[in-house]
Amino acid sequence: MIVLETDWSLMTPEISLAALALLVFTIDFMTGIHGKKPFIGRLAVLSLLVTAVLVILLNPGGGSIGDLFLVDPFARLFKLIILIGVAMVIMISMYYLDRNPEVYQGEYYSIMMFAALGAMLMVSSADLITLFIGLEILSISSYVLAGFKKHHRHSTEAALKYVILGGTASAFILYGMSFLYGLTGSTSLVEIGQAMPVLFQQYPALVGMSFLFMLVGFGFKISIVPFHMWAPDVYQGSPTPVTAFLTVVSKLAGFAIVIRIFTLAFGFEGIHGEWSFILAVMAAITMITGNFIALTQNNVKRLMAYSGIAQAGYLLVPFAVVLGDFSSTVIVFYSVAYLMMTLGAFAVITLVTEDSGMTDISSFAGLYYRSPYMAIAMTVFLVSLGGLPLTAGFIGKVNIFILAAAGDMLWLAIIMILTSVVSFYYYFGFIKQMFMTEPRPNDKELFVPGGLLTVVTVSLAVVLLLGIAPNLLLDIFNQYNWMPSFN
Amino acid sequence: MVSITLFLALAAILFCIGLYGVLTRRHLVIVLASIELMLNAVNINLVAFSAIGPFANITGQVFTLFVITVAAAEAAVALAILIALYRNRNSIDVLKHDLLRW
Amino acid sequence: MCHGILKEKGVGMMHYAWLIPVFPLITFLILLVAGRVLKEKVAYIGIAGLALSFLLSVLVLLERIGGETYTYVLNWMTVGENVVTMGYEVTALNAMMLIVVTLVSLVVHIFSKEYMKEDDRIHVFFAYLGLFSFSMLGLVLAPNILQLFIFWELVGLCSFLLVGFWYFKPEAAAAAKKAFLITRIGDVGLLIGLVLLFNRVGSFNYAEIYTAVEMDQLSAPMITTIALLIFLGAVGKSAQFPLHVWLPDAMEGPTPVSALIHAATMVAAGVYLIGVMYPLFLASSTAMTVVAYTGALTALFAATMALVNNDIKRILAYSTISQLGFMILALGTAGYVAGLFHLMTHAFFKALLFLGAGSVIFAVHHRQDIRDMGGLWGKMKVTSVTFLIGSLAIAGIFPLAGFWSKEEILASTLINGDGFLFLIALVTAFLTAFYMFRLFFKTFTGEFKGGDLNDPTEETFNEQAAWEATQSAEVGLDAGYEERKVYPNHQEVPENEPRENAGLMTFPLMVLAVLAVIAGFINAPFLGHQLEAFLTAGLNVGTQPHGALWLAFLSVAVAVAGISLAWAMYVKGFIREDFFSSKAPSIHKLFQNNYYLDDIYLAVFVRPTKEISLLLWEMDKTIVDGVITLIGSLTSRSGKAMGKHQDGQLQTYGLVTVFGGMVVIGLAFAVRGYFG
Amino acid sequence: MMANMLIWLVFLPLIGAILLFTIPKENVNVIRSLATIVSGMALILTVIIWGGFDRGVSGIQNGTTLPWFDLGFLQINFEIGIDGLSMPLLLLTTLVTTLSIFASFSIEKRVKEFYIWTLILLSGMLGVFVALDMFLFFLFFELTLVPMFFLIGIWGGKMRSYASFKFLLYTGIGSGIMFMTFLAIFTKGAEAMNFQGTSFSMIRLAEIFANPANPEVLSEGVKAALFLGLLVAFAIKLPVFPFHTWLPNAHVEAPTAVSMILAGILLKMGGYGLIRAGFGILPDQAAKFATLIAILGLINIIYGALLALVQTDLKALVAYSSISHMGIVLLGIASFTHSGMQGAVFQLVSHGFISALLFFMVGAMYERTKTRTISEMGGLSKSVPILAGFMLAAAMASIGLPGLSGFVSELLAFIGIFGASADLIPAAMTIGIIAGIGIILTAAYLLWAMQRTTFGPIKEKFMNLPDARPMEYVPMVGLLALSLILGVYPHILSDVINTTVIDIVSRIGG
């Protein structure tokens, strides 16, 4: 592997995003760190979109840089999800930062872009080191973002919890990785995967341990029970757009990498049977815990955190059932749906909570009277999160059901269905607030800024479109050979 | 030739001590230091494997370098957050920071 | 799609028999839509409709005499491979019934024109009458038992509507409900019976049922079961013991209604039903015995209750029950013609009596207690005379209609029944004569005891009536019975003495009186039992019993004895009026309180049902729904419990994470055995 | 052509709902007329489909299968079609919805939303009745939840929030269980076919399950469990004791028009589903559980009636009467006879009209008297004779008075249960007789209610109530006329149902 022989063009999107992020950073630096800087936000969105276009246009055939960096449909799809997600988060943030001028705005945007970069790197990596770097770029950016309202006690506390627990989780991941490296002498996932069948025969305990250590660490990152404890607090304390970022982008990127590792390194038949059951149990516990605790929540952000935990449980199901193109299709489809419905919901949540200055669920009271469009859109997002028809969430969820049933894990599908019904209660609690409660006396009609409106409209359109015509996406997905190793 | 098991055991012990520190110490700086300890356990593992592992090669040491670097970055961010927190709350006692709960 | 099947050729008048019920239906529809506009003229429309029906009935009858049974059906419904048909049929029996129904209905219409003239809702009244006539005629024309059942229910509905015509009277409302509900019990029996028949015969048609019975397609126990179930329907509709309790209360309806529905036609439908299902009954001796004894017991019981009642209409109601018992007794003792013959004669004289009573009530401004009457003989000439004719007819005095039919019933009990049944029949005949003349004498002879008719303070109902009303109200699950009130329909009364009513009211009396005199001759022995020949032609209903001459004398003697006793007690006072009541007060009370049947039903059926329901409701709320609520609260509680660990402590989180990891690791190792 | 019409039928109300979105909410009259027109068009479409319905065909007609989306290992199709089972229910749906839209003209609050939700609901209901693919069936089944939640939750009475959530969660669990069972059926079907040509199509699965060549995968126990799953799922919707407690709450709180739809159509989805999926795919299991179903039906009849007897709220009374009447459906289908099955379908349709009428009447009375407590009413015949008359007519229809449709279905169901083979239901006779008591109880509670509401002396405050408005005649006369037509000439309906029923019954080797 000689550096100069490598096809670096595969990394064009990452490189350009890094450059653009630095550019944004520099511009911010040159324009003074204080004050509102909507133009930087716009620039950031533009950069992300440009990168997204690059992802789409470049390297349709895929390829790899050694065994370090993979460009395959899986990576490209998740990169798109990440970039669009971050772009939408930034559009939400622009409103948020407009309301919170004390936050250093330029830094915020550039760090957000770096986080996106880390996530992109992560989903493309096929090597433990690259992966770790990507993960840490994402994580460290996230720590910073969580504590971005540095004069705000909740925000800093959230950041603290996040950084300490996140650091510990990283240590767990690394500890697990160190064994993998030691046993194979390689950090390449592909090579590890090739060695795995033999290795597993020789050192089942060590392989199992490294797997489980990594599971703990990654389980933490994607907040599945019992590694989820940090999530509600951090989500609640972070600035709302950051919460959106953590719930969606960070989690989906985490999922992508979990799938990547477990597919490449632990994907062979013999070992899949060993851990699929554990994953299934964890998925079940995650769905139950997330949904049940969410029932009792009154804080919107905390509620969404538990809802996100539950959603992570749903996403874990196909992964636990089977690995391959089918489950990837299902996961990616649900990820897209999840991205859109959650970000749409967070856009509305940001708007409402910032307007009312509180994050209690009653801040949604009478939203329908104050802004019908937002209320209707929010309803669609919630209904989609709950998994009711004519929305992307429904199709995504039902696909997961079917996959679970077809993969002989009907019990998991049953738990998922039942907990989904439980989730109706709190999702419809929002709806009740919006439609069936009078607005509080001082609440006036809500002004919806353009950025938020765009986010909401785009999400709404995608959620509904995928709910009615999921074949638009699925037809494309079905042609994909998601990862080379699936053959 | 020293057996690799010894290094692994040392790393394991270090990791556990670090974990214990993270979970029990009330001083946040010590908690941070404990995390460093855990990461260093990883480093020992990597270096040991790199030197005398079954498939000894240089990659492990490269990995170690990356881990050290990232650990430094993480520590920097963590300390920054700690300072921000201290400014807000005048305390770096772990137990004091429970505004966000339930 | 809906093509008719002409079963038999020969399209004559009978082909148009379907029009007979349609005329009243049309009047019903007209009145329903335009009743409010027509107001005063509604009566004419009703009368015209019925008159047409009557004329057509006469024509149909004339054609049927000497003709054959005519059937016309349409596909009504497809059930699997079976086709259920509906249509109409003219048989001997229903040709006779058509005449009875249309005639009585016509005169009642005429009578009502005057009787109801001051009621605001006269159009509704006539509409209901039209609907009733339609239903009753439809019942009669039905070619299958399902269609009969359909119209059977419809007449029940009309009865409900007409009994509750003065819906604002709580007791009328309660009585209407009671009437419907109790007959409904019988109806369910009938329904089950016909369902069983259908399942075994594959058709509802009479003809096919007869064939099936003849061909022994049904097992003997099944025939008995079905016959008894069908009889249950008759028991309910014809107010036989133990389901007779609704009929006395049904007297809350306007008097013409009582005459039409609760004397002449609807209540006789039960008898008619047994008549059309007679082959089935004949095939089961058990069923026949049950029928006979039920009829006999009812006849006697009802007569005893009639002895002590003071409400003119209730006496007639008990009398009706008793007479229906007679008919059923006759049918139960193989007296097919006797029963149906009595049905016809009874229809005429009982309608006459009711209308007579109506005339009296009208004249005394809606009082019904016979103790407040008396001395009307001179004041209401036509009413008195016709009422006397009616009374004589029901008592069975030669040569009035009742004599002929009653004599045949006695004959049939004597010949086919046992001595006990005959004895009961005889005693009942005696009692009938007695209570009818008690009524007659107390109403028409002596002094008028009603006082000033215009005195508003006059309380016209006694405690007894009020008590009964309470009973009826309570049977209807209605504990919150309100104080009894009187709702006079007459706002202005010009004179304060009873006097004869207008011609429109007396004319029907005269018509019916004539019939009460002559109707009996159609089956008189010396004229050759014409009716019997007509009715039994082509039917296998066994040989009809005929009594010896001495029976006729005996029956008249019994009647005369009854009348004499009444005369002795109520006119001459040879025997004190309270002679029996003072001698045997408990029996008197028993009679007066209808054998406490209402109370028993209340205690045995109504209250327990209500208690059980309340209990179930509690259970529904606490247990059935409670479990759901519990699941809900358990869910949210477990959510709370799970959330408890979220105590905000960083290190707790770490601990949970690490321990969780260890549990997962431990589980994995335990389950999968990595150390294997 | 006809098949396209089915697609149009299902999506027409949705399109209507979208159109309604564009109309400013102040134009109340435009909104009302548009909603009426849309549902009226749906009605006309159904009538046309009804006219073109081939009564001689027992299987699916006008079927269409369009590919919808592909999961790689499974093709999900948009498979729709109708047979003698769904045709009457389609007509019922459009009829009752259209009439309930007329009934809802008195709603002044948030009119636009009301009709949007109603139309979405209509789409969902129509979809359920035409869907032949289990996925699609589930989709439409779930689609009805949200509009109903809103309709009860916004326009409901005092406890609307509780009622709407109870409805949502309870029936949500029901559809959840339903889909679980569907999944299991799908899996078992796929296993039986060795994952060749797997499908969610009910028709296809019915064939697979009927194939005796697949015994080892489809053991009796598995099939029994599957059937019980379906039974529970649809029992919640129907509802069957002990899963009925959501219904009284929902009804009492729901506005009149919504109650009409709820009782008139939504419950029918349960009965329909049970026949379509339960009896369609697993007829042998259905036969095996016939006794259970019959007993459940019996319990429903008696229990519903007894509870109705002691209700103090008129609407709750009618709600419990619905429970009682749905028992007849169960009784009918359990009998596995032509008449019983036909009676069940007939009852679904007939009860649709009658209960809608009853709820409408109760609503009309409530609107005037502002009370639903039975003891507070009385003598209403005096001030509102026409409404009282219709209420009485509705009660009579519900009692099962001949000449009205309820009688026919009761009769058929009774013929069915008394004719049930002793192998299927050992105690059919006893069950039938006890069910007969239910009929008496029905008369008891309804007449008691009528006696205390429309009869008796009138209260002073109710003396000057306005009688029926012209707009109210439409649903009143319409529903009563429908009930009357079916009662007087049931051939219209039995003709359509019959061949399909014969087909269903024949599946258990009958």
From TrEMBL, chain A:
Its EC number is 7.1.1.-. Keywords: Cell membrane, Membrane, NAD, Quinone, Translocase, Transmembrane, Transmembrane helix, Transport. It is a multi-pass membrane protein. It holds the Pfam family Proton_antipo_M. The chain crosses the membrane at residues 15-33, 40-58, 78-97, 106-123, 129-148, 160-183, 203-230, 242-263, 275-296, 303-324, 330-352, 373-395, 401-426, 446-469. It catalyses: a quinone + NADH + 5 H(+)(in) = a quinol + NAD(+) + 4 H(+)(out). It is found in: Cell membrane; Membrane. Residues 125-422 form the NADH:quinone oxidoreductase/Mrp antiporter transmembrane domain. Signal peptide: none annotated. GO terms for biological process: ATP synthesis coupled electron transport. Its main location: membrane. GO terms for molecular function: NADH dehydrogenase (quinone) (non-electrogenic) activity; NADH dehydrogenase (ubiquinone) activity; quinone binding. GO terms for cellular component: plasma membrane. NDH-1 shuttles electrons from NADH, via FMN and iron-sulfur (Fe-S) centers, to quinones in the respiratory chain. The immediate electron acceptor for the enzyme in this species is believed to be a menaquinone. Couples the redox reaction to proton translocation (for every two electrons transferred, four hydrogen ions are translocated across the cytoplasmic membrane), and thus conserves the redox energy in a proton gradient. Belongs to the complex I subunit 2 family. NDH-1 is composed of 14 different subunits. Subunits NuoA, H, J, K, L, M, N constitute the membrane sector of the complex. This is NADH-quinone oxidoreductase subunit N. It comes from Salipaludibacillus neizhouensis. The gene is nuoN.
TrEMBL record, chain B:
Its EC number is 7.1.1.-. Keywords: Cell membrane, Membrane, NAD, Quinone, Translocase, Transmembrane, Transmembrane helix, Transport. One of its GO terms (cellular component) is NADH dehydrogenase complex. GO terms for biological process: ATP synthesis coupled electron transport. NDH-1 shuttles electrons from NADH, via FMN and iron-sulfur (Fe-S) centers, to quinones in the respiratory chain. The immediate electron acceptor for the enzyme in this species is believed to be a menaquinone. Couples the redox reaction to proton translocation (for every two electrons transferred, four hydrogen ions are translocated across the cytoplasmic membrane), and thus conserves the redox energy in a proton gradient. NDH-1 is composed of 14 different subunits. Subunits NuoA, H, J, K, L, M, N constitute the membrane sector of the complex. Belongs to the complex I subunit 4L family. This is NADH-quinone oxidoreductase subunit K.
